[in-house]
Amino acid sequence: MDSDADGVPSEFFDYFKVLCIQGFLTCRKHAERIILLVEMLQDSGFPCFKGGPRTIQNLRKRFHLSLTEEQCVSLVLSLISSSLDAWRTRQYDYYQRVLNGIL
């Protein structure tokens, strides 16, 4: 994903990383509002909210509010990098290729 068969880096992959960083930082700016919305849905009966207070704690952790913006950029880049050759990523790509002819 990050380069072609000859190892030439992909401009689109670099753009993808920029978009991921921008998206994460934008969501993070609104973290308290997002968390409040999820708190309001706790009693909705939806299965994804059945974790109780743990749901909110886990959501709050995912925003990494204690990190600086620069640290968050590094975090997002490391998450992307670690997922590049992850077993689950390869399996999902294979699934898409076989089932849907994608990739």
From TrEMBL:
InterPro entries associated with the record: Kinase-like_dom_sf (IPR011009), PI3/4_kinase (IPR015433), PI3/4_kinase_cat_dom (IPR000403), PI3/4_kinase_cat_sf (IPR036940)
Transmembrane segments: none
Annotated ranges, domain PI3K/PI4K catalytic: 1-88
Coiled-coil blocks: none
Recorded superkingdom: Eukaryota
UniProt KW keywords: Kinase, Transferase
Record-linked PANTHER family: PHOSPHATIDYLINOSITOL 4-KINASE BETA (PTHR10048:SF22), PHOSPHATIDYLINOSITOL KINASE (PTHR10048)
Protein name: Phosphatidylinositol 4-kinase beta 1
Lineage, uppermost ranks: Eukaryota, Viridiplantae, Streptophyta, Embryophyta, Tracheophyta
